[in-house]
Amino acid sequence: MQPAAVYTRDRCVTGIHGLDEILRGGIPYGSTVLASGTCGSGKTTLAMEFLVRGALAGEACAHFTATEPSVKLLENIRQFEFFDMNMVDTGLINVFDMDVLYSWLGLEKSSFDLDDVHALIKAIVDIVNTIGVTRLVIDSVTTLCYKIKSEQLIRDFLFTLGKKLSTLGCTTILISEITSATENAHWSSFGVEEAIADGIIVMGDVERMGHLLRFLQVVKMRGTSHSRAKHAIELTPIGVMLTPMLKWGAQGDKQSKWGA
Amino acid sequence: MNKQYTFKKEDEEFFGGVGSFGVPKFDLEMHGGVPRGFTMVSFTDTGSGSELFGKQFTSPAEESENTLYVSTNEGQQEIARVFNKYGWPLDISVRTIGEEYNKEVLEKELLASRYRLEGFRLEDIQRLAQTRFVDETHQDYLTEVTNEIMSLGPYFRVVIDNLDFFLQREDNTKVVAMVRMLQAHAQMMRGLLLINISNDGLNPTIKQELSSIADMVLSFKVRTIGTDFETSMIVSKFRNAPENLKILVFRVTPAEGITPETVERIS
Amino acid sequence: MFELDQRIAEQLTEVALNSSVQVRCGNSNAFMVTASTMVPLMQMFEMGGVYISGSRSAMEMIEAFETIGIDVSNIQFVDLVSSGVLGGTDSTRKNIHFVDSPIMLESILLRALYLLRTTTLERNFVILDSVNALAIYNDDRMLAEYLHTFINTFRQREVLSVILNVPDQTPPLVLSNLDLYCTDLIDRGQVVIH
Fold first, then answer.
1. What ipTM score was computed for the predicted complex, to two decimals?
2. Which of A189, B157, B226, C67 is least buried, going by the fewest C-beta atoms within 10 A?
3. Chain B and chain C touch, per 3+ beta carbon pairs within 8 A
4. Which CATH architecture has domain B9-97+140-260?
5. Mean of pLDDT values over A249-256
6. Hey, which residues does A139 pair with through a beta bridge?
7. CB burial of residue C87 (10 Å; 0-12, 13-18, 19+)
8. Is A246's CB within 8 Å of C142's CB?
9. For residue A200, what pLDDT is reported?
């Protein structure tokens, strides 16, 4: 008897050293993935590499930056060997300043209402649809959602955006800023993002005798089996590199079982 | 006074102690004109002719490069047409804040609604992806106008028509502070400054404050008499010359612009 | 004149690229054994690679090699010592790469992997100098786990791993695990009786 064929979803191969192994081939196409992390944990670099690897494969990519001006982002990212400014010049990587987008849409205000949220979704979806974006990064969804005062509206925003982008076959990374990446912490700033996202990648630091070691952990990824182990990461000039974190060193000092 | 300006003798002779209103009959009524260094605030009713009076006030233009007409409602062409009509000098500086505002702010708002309704086109997206900084469209017109007037030299002549634009958009205390600064500058430079403000919706405290800063307070009124309109100017404050306080009924003639009525009415 | 131990070179002819060699040395002959291992790998087998410098600073090691006439300019050094010394990282040498501390074991591994990815040579080694240096900072079980990962990572990538250690100063758990994981042993150390 023939074994039943196992259906596997097509993958968006991130191209990031080690991450595709963890995800057993990549992120399922059209997923909305929340990359949550503490400051300095490498979220922006990871997301930018995700786009660059896509651009190298000829995919159209878009990056919406709300946390730092695009000029600064591009300047910081230029030091990585995997990045080529030509990708921006030729339109393979399209970097959008959220401030500029807000200004163009008349959204220069401290809080967004339902109409504003819909206008923003429409604008992002328009961009994705018009230039055929298959990889999208919003850095960060936390900064963006600060302007949306109600939890319900944040939920609607993320759900509608995710649904529309998924329909367009766009794999999205939403960067979320969190203050702690420990086991008991939330994986998102507002608590609603994590429920809506198809996948959650947590990034943070493990303190080991006064030194901070960056880690990455895939907590959830719909549509694929994946490793849920903590992985140490290193931001190198050739991109993000991962290796499984030592089991005896995967926890911070306080939870350490050393010498137990 | 912290600062003193030394005036040239020939300038003092040329400009004299008073400047013309641009309306000879008003000059007569005010015993020669308006003393140099005066700041005039006029509270106006709609349709009372204050805009025309403001333009006419710039018409003596002793030095055209030192004469500035700031309009918050009219455009350059409209103003030029009026100046042309009455044969007033066209070489003075005219700043049309309303026009600038419409161009810079309203056009942007219109574009924003287009983006929101119709979405982005490919060329919009390409431009958006290349735009790294937000256009600083929120211009501080108040500071800009203040600086422009403060940069004018001795014996300047300035009309601001009208202050409502600033009062509606800026913190009112900031606007009052600006007027105070301009009054000091006019006094020091022996300039003439006329500021029009609408009576409609004006906060009484602000009105009181502006009146106390001004050297001369005018009110432009309009009322109906039978089937006619009667326009009048009330001089309710004239620093150090209370004899000038009066009510002057005026009309607009094609030849002279605003001119006081010579016929005494029997009420 | 500095004399290399030729028997080490002979022993190294037996190893393959996916081998992991445990090199035991004593306190007094550590540098001689290290040099005797490096030189044949570089000169006889035309290998390049990464030297993880945990016992002494990379600069000190490079100078020591240069003193005995060995050019190590195409070897990449991962220095675990200098970041712990104020001003220790003031180096203009392009082949020295600093890791904050020997406690950052995963970073050391990733840094070595990164450097190996940038090399153009076909045959490479990674020399870990030494287990004893890492043992000062790291828990025995973590170190044993690390060496297991370390050896298997490079074995999988066909990179020869050479692990230096002074056996009588190596924790027994680590030592016994090393014996288990390594494919070859070059023993120039003291006899250890536990």
1. 0.88
2. B226
3. no
4. 3-Layer(aba) Sandwich (3.40)
5. 54
6. A65, A175
7. exposed
8. yes
9. 95
